[in-house]
Design goal:
87% of the residues lie in helices and 0% in strands. It is mainly alpha-helical.
Length: 138
Amino acid sequence: MVPVPLIILYLKPLATFLAGTNKPAAQFLDLLFEKAKRKAGPIEEFRWLGLMLFVAVPFPGTGAWTGAFIASILDIPFWSGVSANFFGVVLAGLLVNMLVNIGLKYAIVACIVMFTASGCMWSVLRALKQRLRSSSSG
């Protein structure tokens, strides 16, 4: 968690500096940032909650450093990005601890249940967001 605030604060200024001094670096960073923005659909849609749940998923590439990188790219405010990363790391730790302690057979079942529940949760959140949007505009 130590580098998370530094990544959120200084990633964009560092990228801007590098892009201004080196044309190939600018092209690479533009490509990298665009790809990251395309992949960050649910995070961009739900902001804090999306970032926290992304970091909480205990899979490779979804940890605090990646969450900080995404928070910086999506211009999520500093304290929102840090707190979403913190709570996501805590939740991921609790999930991994639970899966390790219940045994392999039950861990596989729990993973299937969590995967299904997360898909349903995103659908419910999207439906609620659309309903709130339509009720506020109508």
